Amino acid sequence: MNVVPLRAQNLQKKQQPLTTVLKVLSEKFGVSFSYIDDTIKDKESVLPPTDISLEATLEFLRTETQLDFELLNNKYIVISKPKYSEAKFLTQKLKEVFVTNYLTSGITKLNDGSLTIKPRTFGILPGLIEPDVLQTIQALPGVLSADETVSNINVRGGTHDQNLLLWDGIKMFQSGHFFGLISAFNPHTTKKVSVFKNGTRAKYGDGISSIIDMQLPDEIDNEFKAGMGFNFINADGFAKIPLSKNTELQLSARRSITDLINTSTYEQYFKRIFQDSDFNDATKNDDFISQNESFYFYDIAVKFLFDATKKDKFRFHFLNIHNQLNYDEQSVINDRSEALNSNLIQNNLAFGTTYLRDWSDKLSTTAQVYVTNYDLDATNFDILNNQRLIQENEVYDGSAKFDINYEANLNFHFNGGYQFTETGISNLEDVNNPTFRSYIKEVVRTHSVYAESQYLSNDAKTRLNLGGRLNYFGKFDLILAEPRLSFSQRFLNFFRFEVLGEFKSQTTQQIIDLQNDFLGIEKRRWVLSNNQTQVIENGNQTIYPIPVLRSKQLSTGIHFNKNKLLVSAETYIKKVDGITTRSQGFQNQYQFVNAIGSYEIKGIDVLLNKQFSDIVGGWVSYSYSNNRYQFDALNNGKPFPNNVDITHAVSFAGTYTNNNLKLAVGVNWHSGTPHTEPSANDNPDDNRISYALPNSSRLNDYLRADCSATYAFNISDATRASIGASVWNVLNKRNVLNTYYTLDSDNNINTIENESLGITPNVSFRVYF
């Protein structure tokens, strides 16, 4: 093993030994290259352009040398020989890169309109000390969370259930720990995350608002890697273990420390999540004493890689995500003390097997089978009313996929395949006093075929993806065609114009029946489309109409990228049909109304990103949108604001990266979300609340400032470590995320306000081997 010294050589505009190029780059970026001498023997390259970042430089070298350059901790770069097929894939992928360091290092925009996040090379974002996948996505223009959680991410005005989350190709129905405050997916074992807001590849079904595709490392490199760390919420560890030349085991585990240590971060999280729950109501009631509350979460991920031959590869996947809350309620009734235990368990279990076959240099196939199971259970005791309520929401999703890739040449690439999916969702509600039980289960089977052609010009200035997906829903005898389009054209060297479009559909969505569903903590439950057009009463069961969701979206954008300055503007229009009032979380006059409608959103996303030097950068983004509901049966058929209609949103951030030190500060502001106030003419004696026009009022503007810092250092030649600190909502600004109204026993109107996180510090320490 050899380490290049930090020396500079005279720049030359011709092919020269790679060792010479590495010496120049070592001095320029303050990095060290590690390699085996035979790896770079006889390799040559021209010097990369002087005005591009380190990450873009490594991409350039990968193209020139067909070698793999892995950046570790922004300082050490390991050079290795990839397999031929892998090198070919990297070469093709490099031509698709349009913008590196889209917001910070590790975030790249491709010229098919998608964004790629690589946690391993991730820089830093304000308020984050670890590359939390779903928190990072919220920094992208057009993506935010109206309630600050990763279980309610709104992409261009959509609800969270309209996002398709894939973990190594497996569909996920649970996205967060701590009921949405932390991503449930370990970023330290995630190699790449692909995000599509529009122009989605034809191979993806569902996800009418976005695709979030998380991928683990898929190549065996026979290198051992491991790490462990902790912060004020959880501790975790991961390992990548070569078992032989053709087998590898990847492991990761994370568990909360909140049931062992009471930290300031946990106190803020606890206050935020449980402020509007049955648990918090019990603590406010003089008749109750809440005690012995216990909350914890964990996740375990396993991936086993087996290369049977050079052309045949098998991959096995396993993931378990778990959240659990227990608490006691105690009351004195008739001079007798009674105590009962209420609990909430949320779990997502997934298994999968993938077989990859390289038939030739041009033709490859992938077959995958997976099963994922989501289960949400709650038992809630009401001691005063001698009542016990059991609720359960269970999702079973199984799929078989076959995918074909054919690369005719460097210009044309074809992709096609078939997918069969069976989804079953059940909902149980059981009350003992009065006796009531409702159990509803729906199953939908979907057959899908898709095909897509991709064209990339020789100079990489023109790219066109044109494809489509055909879905057949056997239960409804329904066929839906979904065309997909992605076109981009570079002109005047530094400008790129793009057009993206898609039709999509999905049969799953989340609804809210009552405000206190699942103890008021996890209010949303998954349901399946039944394609009914009217309410059906069947004994204790009430079947409400739930159509198949359908969306249409078109967007255009223009981007300028020169001298580390990026100016980007995208305008879009999206229409979603088949939504129900029960899926939108109304807390006004429409809370108990069942109606079918749509929403249409028009908007523009603007980003200005400037790297002032290799160590200082910053960006500002602005989003404008107009998001309107249309329910023929509501508001006299007139459009009215969507519950997550955020008209204006601005974010600003600055970063400083110098060797091992990273700093970030930022501000997020957006206009308030709509809500409905009681009518000025409300009758206080009619035992109900009369409301004004729906969503005719707005909450106060939202404002939050965050900061974060990390520092990496070496413990030994083989061991690295990093420490980090962050503060969320530095100014401790009180932000109201939601307002609704209830009646008390005296018919007085009470105002309920859900507040955001207050000032929330966090500290982390990690070690890498």
Automatic annotation (TrEMBL):
This protein's name: TonB-dependent receptor plug domain-containing protein
Keywords: Cell outer membrane, Membrane, Receptor
Subcellular location: Cell outer membrane
Keyword Membrane: yes
Domain TonB-dependent receptor plug: 133-207
Main location: membrane
Highest rank taxon of the organism: Bacteria
